[in-house]
Design goal:
By secondary structure, the chain is mainly alpha-helical. It is built from twelve helices and two strands. The protein has one domain.
Length: 301
């Protein structure tokens, strides 16, 4: 081949050959079954953001099985169908309080999970926008959960049945115990940000101390499943370290409001628990208080 002036050898060779100059750099010429280049080229991802996968919740079959397992376990440890039903109903209402708050604050649609032998879980689709929102969500469960007491108190007074009143008492105690500032209970998520406002390490030290006491309480009172569950949670909390910096901290006014709401919610739950026992003690507060203390295994006269 004679070179042509003003044209490179490579260009002249390409012009006389049957090579498709659109062949990709892989060296393979497109075959009859390949997609056209326009279709084979992936659509640019610029300006597109991957949508987070929505949590669909528990499969209906597993949700039913979990609920039945939980109901059977509660019946076994309480020895009463009424009390077991009260605790299960109170559990659902408590978690629904979290769900309502999550949905209201843009974290939904939230889902409820029943965890056999342990309790329930309200799961949001996204994190709270602020620590203040996180505090509100954590306190919504115990506050709203007290509504579940109403039908059991009404039935207990109408029927004169101690079982129904004890069911109401257990509902109140579910919400009160959840306010313990021990991970992963609601109290740790409500009080933790307040302690972090003072110093991040203060939250870690305080919650680990309370968590350790809660584990000891569970072991000493025969609540082994609760003790193991709390022990695992405390260990996970220890490994996690300080993690709230990315979410930002409460302002001092928000910390004050959070502490006030926490103390008010705890006081209302405690009063509701004692109030459920008053009909059993003829309206006497001190015997009802002693009965409540005996339940949590810390004495009583």
């Amino acid at each position: 081949m004679r070179p042509v002036a003003g044209c490179s050898l490579q260009a002249q060779f390409d012009a006389m050959s049957d090579i498709d100059n659109t062949t990709p750099h892989s060296g393979r010429r497109p075959g009859p079954w390949d997609l056209p280049p326009a279709e084979a080229t992936p659509e640019p991802l610029r300006g597109r953001q991957a949508e987070p996968l929505e949590d669909k919740g528990q499969h209906p079959a597993w949700a039913i099985a979990s609920t039945l397992l939980m109901a059977g376990f509660l019946w076994w440890i309480t020895g009463s169908v009424i009390v077991a039903g009260a605790v299960l109903f109170g559990l659902f209402v408590h978690e629904y309080g979290h769900v309502l708050a999550m949905n209201k604050l843009g974290m939904g649609p939230a889902r409820i999970y029943i965890i056999p032998f342990l309790g329930g879980l309200a799961k949001a689709q996204r994190n709270p926008k602020t620590e203040w929102h996180g505090v509100l969500v954590s306190l919504a469960g115990p506050a709203f959960g007290l509504i579940a007491m109403i039908p059991f108190v009404a039935a207990g007074l109408a029927l004169g049945s101690p079982e129904w009143l004890m069911g109401a008492f257990f509902i109140a105690m579910i919400n009160l115990v959840n306010l313990l500032p021990a991970p992963p209970l609601d109290g740790s998520k409500a009080l933790g940000p307040v302690l972090t406002r003072v110093h991040p390490r203060l939250e870690q030290v305080a919650l680990l101390a309370v968590g350790g006491l809660a584990v000891w309480w569970g072991l000493s009172t025969g609540r082994l499943i609760l003790a193991v569950f709390l022990g695992i949670a405390v260990f996970s909390h220890l490994r996690r370290g300080v993690w709230r910096a990315d979410w930002g901290q409460l302002s001092w006014p928000e910390a004050g409001r959070s502490l006030a709401l926490y103390l008010a919610t705890a006081a209302i739950c405690a009063a509701a628990a004692i109030g459920a026992l008053l009909p059993l003690t003829g309206g006497a507060v001190e015997p009802a208080f002693d009965m409540g203390l005996r339940f949590i295994g810390v004495g009583g006269r």
